[in-house]
Specification:
By secondary structure, the chain is an alpha/beta fold. 62% of the residues lie in helices and 12% in strands. The chain is built from 24 helices and 16 strands. The chain starts with a helix and ends with a helix.
């Protein structure tokens, strides 16, 4: 009786305590929301007039009381800068930081209902960004209008600023269309009317913004810049954005008040039910005493079928469920959704294992909230979750469900006062009619997940029979590939790089080849299998060792400094130990690091979690003397910021900006801008994929330094490279025009 009543009493107490704590959490969220609402008139006055009048006298004290001993100083510091900063855009930036800080302390995201869950992000981030970025864009346009001459850098600055505004404004418009227009709660009509006004003002501003961008690209002087129209529509956008901001806060307030009322009823209900549970437990405790041992044994066995961290069924429970499924109807279909969180180890390394565990529990909770009642959820691995839908009625909606799930997972979340953003991939399997679910089917879902991962973060893919065929084929290739690595037939070939002015070979890029007897196998035929089998580090080490040996043999035998280009993977750049090992390897072979050109793709720096350590290691490589080259320049998401943040010696312009540049005026403008940008920062320029003499001539006349491509040579074995160097650098005179002819061509 004691062992039965004690848990019941504990359960009732904990349930009551939990509900009561929920009420307290909502009260705290309401306090934070009221503080954010108090900022509204101040933000509007500052953004419209540029100054502030009377500030509510109790605002500072309320912030101090709300923040407590630990957070009062940061909150009041942000308030002071907002109130006293003369620059409007900087001041509004601190108002945004203050709003975000209050929202985080109030845990607003966790207190509002699912229906209103998009509004905190809209209020704290997107609408503030619209106000700030549109103000910057308008001010930049006004400033540019006064310039006598508009340079390329200023044109790109206006373009980048316009992109920042458009990203924030389009996201805000999308949220209003996808979520706010569907709200049905009290105050939704007012909020929806404000969203209509915002979208109209946004459309007008973006229309004038497009004219501004076009005029800026073509402008030679400031008077050519269409700055007036955008300045005229800007106040309307500001007022519409602020009105939407305030209406969103009002809706959140009503939502929290409604939830608090419901939670108070839950507190009362918890107390009553808890009392009833205790009474009922006492009444039946005698009858249950005999069955207690048997039930305890059943509970112990049940633990073997559940994940202790998330409480979801585990893989063992899933396999048991598969065995007990009834025979499906001839027309029935089922769906499998396999989700995996990406780069999760880096989250653990950065924030701690406890934070990672909290995220896993949070994801499990999200899955439980959006899954259908008949869905079977399980945690099948460390970061893998599976959803089984036994009766799939609409395959299209199941795909839409996968997309929505990915977007829900990738929303920013706060864990232990840390802002965390995670990415996920999803593999989908939709069965044929009448098919049974088997363990073989789970493998097919895993193949779909693997295919989604190959497409990049936050994507999903649907299983097809071709995936299994490719998987089996890759397995066979991987077996052969390991043998090829051991036999030493995985080798680098080298594509020469020449000085565009003298024609001399000044470097070569090492590219991997598989010499399979008399056949040359190119990377596309075996690298995907190598990635799946985990052989990439072996291949990279083999290529690097052979390439450095060639660099050693060429050392001192060329008239010009010779750079050997090595493609560097993200795994090497992410490891400080690997960086030091590379340096020791180069020095052990008697080479200077300056002779080794490390080609780095911008894509390795996109992920916000991994970008910081990678940039630190690139800086470390540069300090050690390596020649740093930014590959595929212009195609990534961070070209300009990469040049700003990193010490880059050379940029390699992608083939897509070279093909046909001699006869495509629009392409010439962009490629010329890329070259001029690099040159203005004293960075050398290499163009890859040069295939025609006309392309080479245009690049020569427009300041390119080094070229590579089929016009010069395809990738060749190391002995042929040595022959090419002798032929070009020592035996033959270059056929390229001299400097006088270049200057004459430019003057024309």
């Amino acid at each position: 009786m004691v062992f039965l009543l004690a848990p019941c009493l504990l359960f009732a107490s904990l349930w009551f305590k939990n509900k009561f704590e929920n009420v307290e959490a909502i009260d705290r969220s309401l306090r934070g929301l009221h503080l954010i609402q108090a900022l509204g008139p101040l933000v509007q006055e500052k953004s419209v007039t540029g100054s502030l009048g009377k500030v509510p006298p109790n605002l500072r004290q309320e912030l101090i009381d709300f923040g407590g001993e630990n957070l009062a100083d940061p909150l009041t510091s942000q308030l002071d800068i907002f109130l006293n900063e003369p620059d409007v855009k900087t001041s509004l930036g601190y108002a945004q930081e203050l709003s975000v800080s209050i929202s985080r302390v109030a845990m607003l995201d966790m207190s509002v209902s699912y229906e209103a869950s998009t509004l905190p992000n809209l209020v704290n981030n997107l609408l503030f960004s619209v106000i700030i970025e549109s103000s910057k864009m308008t001010d930049d346009a006004r400033r540019l209008y006064t310039r006598k001459k508009v340079n390329v850098w200023e044109k790109m600055l206006i373009t980048v600023q316009g992109g920042k505004f458009k990203a924030a404004a389009d996201t805000a418009s999308q949220i209003t269309a996808n979520f706010i227009d569907k709200l049905e709660g009290p105050g939704s009509a007012v909020l929806q009317s404000k969203t209509q006004l915002f979208r109209q003002a946004n459309f007008a501003f973006q229309s004038e913004g497009s004219k501004l961008l076009r005029s800026t690209i073509l402008a030679k002087t400031g008077k050519d810049v269409a700055a007036g129209p955008i300045a005229e529509v800007h106040p309307e956008l500001m007022l519409a954005t602020l009105a939407l901001w305030q209406s969103s806060l009002d809706y959140l307030n009503g939502d929290l008040v409604k939830r608090r009322t419901e939670m108070q009823l839950d507190v009362l209900l918890a107390g009553l039910i808890g009392a009833l549970v205790i009474v009922a437990a006492f009444a039946i405790s005698v009858a249950l005493t005999r069955a207690l041992a048997e039930r305890t044994q059943q509970e112990i066995e049940s633990l073997g079928y559940h994940d202790p961290l998330t409480g979801l069924p585990n893989r063992r429970a899933l396999l048991k469920r598969i065995k007990t499924l009834p025979e499906p109807a001839p027309t029935a279909r089922y769906g499998l959704l396999l989700l995996d969180l990406r780069q999760f180890k880096k989250v653990n390394d950065r924030f701690s294992d406890q934070c990672g565990d909290s995220i896993l529990r949070s994801v499990a909770g999200q899955l439980g909230e959006i899954a259908d009642p008949e869905d079977f959820l399980s945690r099948t691995g460390g970061t893998e979750f599976l959803l089984f839908r036994p009766e799939l009625k609409d395959a299209g909606k199941f795909k839409e469900f996968a997309e929505e799930l990915i977007q829900e997972i990738r929303k920013e979340r706060f864990v232990a006062d840390q802002k965390v953003k995670i990415e996920a991939n999803v593999g989908l399997l939709i069965s044929q009619r009448g098919d049974c679910l088997t363990s073989h089917t789970l493998t097919d879902a895993a193949l779909a997940l693997r295919s989604a991962k190959q497409k990049g973060y936050s994507t999903f893919d649907l299983f097809t029979p071709k995936m299994r065929a490719a998987f089996e084929e890759h397995g066979e290739i991987a077996k052969e590939l390991l043998k090829a690595i051991e036999e030493g037939v995985i080798l680098p070939w080298y594509q020469p790089q020449i000085d565009i002015r003298t024609g001399e070979i000044v470097g070569a890029e090492a590219l991997v080849r598989w010499i399979d007897h008399d056949e040359v196998r190119y990377p596309g035929s075996f690298l995907p299998a190598a990635v799946e089998a985990g052989y990439m580090e072996l291949i990279e080490a083999t290529v690097r060792t052979n390439a450095l040996r060639l660099a050693d043999s060429l050392s001192g035998r060329t008239q010009r400094n010779f750079h050997l280009g090595l493609n560097v993977s993200a795994s090497l750049l992410a490891s400080a130990e690997a960086v030091d090992a590379l340096y020791r390897q180069v020095r052990a072979m008697g080479l200077e690091p300056a002779t080794v050109s490390l080609e780095i793709l911008e894509a390795v720096m996109i992920d916000e979690i991994t970008a910081a350590p990678i940039k630190e290691n690139i800086a470390r490589l540069s300090d050690l003397g390596f020649h740093i080259e930014l590959d595929d320049f212009g195609t990534g998401h961070s070209s300009i910021s990469s040049l700003r943040d990193l010490k880059v010696d050379r940029v390699k312009i992608d083939r897509s900006f070279i093909s046909g540049v001699d006869h495509k005026p629009a392409l010439q403008k962009f490629t010329s801008a890329l070259i001029n940008l690099a040159k203005s920062l004293d960075i050398s320029v290499l163009a890859e994929g040069v295939e025609t003499e006309a392309e080479r001539q245009w690049l020569l006349e427009n300041g390119c330094d080094v070229i590579q491509g089929f016009l010069i040579s395809k990738a060749v074995p190391e002995d042929e490279l040595a022959t090419l160097i002798l032929r070009r650098n020592f035996s033959l005179k270059t056929q390229l025009p001299d400097q006088n002819s270049i200057r004459s061509a430019r003057s024309r």
